[in-house]
Design brief:
Length: 366
C-alpha cells in the first residue's frame, strides 16, 4: 500500500483498455449545462419580476442553487478541455458556467489544472492541500481553533462550506494574480470583476429582499453542495511526494441518479488519472482500476466520507497521519490505518511536547 507510482504509470496501463472515443471531447454535455442555465435564469427572472410568497421564492432558491451547482460541475469539465477544445470557446463557456462563484477561467486553469493537478497533496505547492504542523506554528488563529472541541470545529467547518468556494477563489486570486504576465493579468482581473458587477447590478435592480432569494441563498446552497464533494477529494488521504492518484485521491459513491445530476463529479480518483477525459467515462476507468489494483483504490459512500471528515482533524502531523495537537491524538489517513467505520485515534506519544506551539501544551487530564 505504501508503494507510489506517478499518474503516467497508471495511465499507460489503463488507457489501452478504454475505447478511443473516451479520449475525445464530449460537447453533448452542454445540453445538461443548458438545462441548468435555463433553470437559474428562469428562477431569477421569476423572483425579480413577480411578487411571490416567501415560500415560493425559497423553492425557487433551491432550484437556482441546484442549477448553480450543476453549472459549476460542468465548468470543471469544460475548463479541463473535456467538452470543447477550442481555447476561446472553452474559456467563454467555462466563464459563464462559473459566473455564480466569481471564478474566472484563466485563474481556474492556473490554480486547479496547473497547480493542484500537477502537485496533488504536496504540502508545499498544492494550493488545496491542508495545513501541516509547521503552518500551525505560524498561524495564531489556527492554534486557537485547535483548542476548541472537535464538534465545534466540525460544525464551524461545515457551516463555512456555504461560502468556502467563493472565499477560496478570492484567496487564489490574491495568490496567483502576480504569476500572470501584464496582459494576461488584466484579463484575469476583468474575469474576476465581471461576475461581481453582474450580481451587484442585480442587487440594485431587484432590491436586497429579492436578491437574497435570487442569488445569495442559491449560491450558498451551491457552495455547500460543491464543497461537500471537494472536501472529500483529498482531505482523508495522505500527503505524497509522488503524485499518485490512487494514494492521494478518494472517489465517493452515491445512487446513480445523484451521479447523473452531479455529472459524475464524485469519481475523483478517475479524474486525477485522466483529467482531460470527460467524467461520463469515469465508470469505465474505475472498473479498470478496481480490476488491477483493488487494494489501492479508495472509495466510500459520500455520506460516510463526510461523517469521517467531521470526526477527524485537518492538521498533518506527518505525511500519513492527521493530528489533534491539543489533545495529542493521531488519526490515520486512507491506506494508513484510517477505518471510516470506527475512526479510532491513537495517543500521539511520538509528538514531542517541544513541537507544540505555546498555548497548545496538553493540560493535565487531557
Amino acid at each position: 500500500m505504501n508503494e507510489r507510482h506517478p499518474i503516467g504509470w497508471y495511465a499507460s496501463r489503463v488507457a489501452p483498455h478504454l475505447p478511443e472515443k473516451a479520449f475525445r471531447p464530449a460537447p453533448e454535455r452542454l445540453w445538461g449545462g443548458l438545462a441548468y442555465l435555463t433553470i437559474t435564469v428562469a428562477g431569477i427572472a421569476a423572483i425579480g419580476l413577480y411578487t411571490l410568497h416567501p415560500l415560493v421564492m425559497l423553492a425557487l432558491s433551491l432550484a437556482i442553487g441546484t442549477g448553480f451547482a450543476g453549472m459549476g460541475f460542468l465548468a470543471h469539465e469544460i475548463l479541463h478541455g473535456s467538452v470543447v477544445r477550442t481555447a476561446w470557446l472553452r474559456d467563454l463557456l467555462g466563464g459563464v458556467a462559473f459566473v455564480q462563484f466569481g471564478v474566472g477561467p484563466k485563474l481556474w486553469r492556473k490554480w486547479h489544472n496547473m497547480e493542484h493537478h500537477a502537485h496533488t497533496q504536496d504540502a508545499d505547492i498544492d494550493p488545496d492541500a491542508w495545513a501541516t504542523m509547521e503552518e500551525l506554528y505560524r498561524r495564531p488563529a489556527l492554534r486557537w481553533v485547535y483548542r476548541l472541541p472537535n464538534w465545534v470545529r466540525a460544525t464551524a467547518n461545515f457551516t463555512s462550506f456555504t461560502l468556502f468556494f467563493i472565499v477560496h477563489g478570492l484567496l487564489m486570486f490574491k495568490r496567483y494574480n502576480g504569476a500572470f504576465k501584464s496582459r494576461e493579468r488584466m484579463a484575469v482581473i476583468g474575469q474576476a470583476v465581471l461576475p461581481w458587477t453582474l450580481w451587484l447590478s442585480l442587487l440594485v435592480l431587484i432590491g436586497p429582499g429579492k436578491w437574497l432569494f435570487a442569488y445569495l441563498l442559491p449560491v450558498m446552497m451551491a457552495n455547500f453542495l460543491v464543497i461537500c464533494y471537494i472536501s472529500t477529494n483529498h482531505q482523508l488521504n495522505p500527503l505524497t511526494d509522488v503524485n499518485d492518484p490512487l494514494a492521494n485521491s478518494l472517489s465517493v459513491t452515491a445512487p446513480r441518479w445523484v451521479h447523473v445530476l452531479h455529472m459524475n463529479f464524485g469519481y475523483h480518483t478517475e479524474h486525477h488519472l485522466f483529467p482531460g477525459m470527460n467524467p461520463k467515462w469515469a465508470p469505465l476507468v474505475k472498473a479498470e482500476i478496481v480490476r488491477r489494483w483493488p487494494e489501492r483504490y479508495h472509495a466510500m459512500p459520500w455520506l460516510r466520507a463526510l461523517v469521517t471528515l467531521a470526526r477527524t482533524p485537518r492538521i498533518y502531523h506527518n505525511q500519513v497521519e492527521l493530528v489533534d495537537p491539543h489533545r495529542r491524538l493521531a488519526y490515520g489517513s486512507l491506506g494508513h490505518g484510517l477505518n471510516p467505520s470506527t475512526v479510532a485515534p491513537r495517543p500521539a506519544h511520538d509528538l514531542p511536547a517541544a513541537e507544540l506551539p505555546f498555548g497548545l501544551q496538553p493540560q493535565q487530564g487531557d
